[in-house]
Amino acid sequence: MPTDLTLRPGTIADAEAVAGIQLAARRGAAMPPGVHTDDEVRAFLRGRLGEDEVWVAESGDDVVGYARFTPTWLDDLYVLPSHAGRGVGSALLDVVKARLPGGFSLWVFEMNAPARAFYASHGLVEREHTDGSENEERAPDLRMEWLESST
After folding, report:
1. What's the pTM value of the predicted model, to 2 decimals?
2. What tens digit of pLDDT does each residue of 26-36 get?
3. Looking at residue 109, what DSSP letter applies?
4. Intra-chain end-to-end CA distance of the chain, in Å
5. Domain count of the chain?
6. Residue 88 CB-half CA count within 13 A
7. How many Å apart are CA 91 and CA 73, to the nearest integer?
8. Which domain holds residue 10?
């Protein structure tokens, strides 16, 4: 973990930063364009901060990444593009593994080769491929899974 990085549970006060991270990361990633407006993303994530477990990564005074998850799914793991490749995503994924020791799944777009490689390098395995007809973007995706015994 980078020495200047702090990991902590996210709060409603982090909602704007979390939304900004997701919006910036998605725009810079090998992903299909989002189907929701920026305001819709902000409202959705503000609501999820009260429902799901969210951890944020801070560098100095800035939130630079976050992970949002439920007892069985990692729904979001995003890092600001300016902090990508610095260990922020790995540190957040380690938190998720520690909080969900029984394992979890996530969805990743098939076209997002960097994310797929990142998750594979951390012990997640591809379990299911779809044609994308069930996701909002209508883009092929795949389910990856981490089981404690798989690392």
Report:
1. 0.93
2. 998 888 888 99
3. E
4. 18
5. 1
6. 27
7. 17
8. 5-150
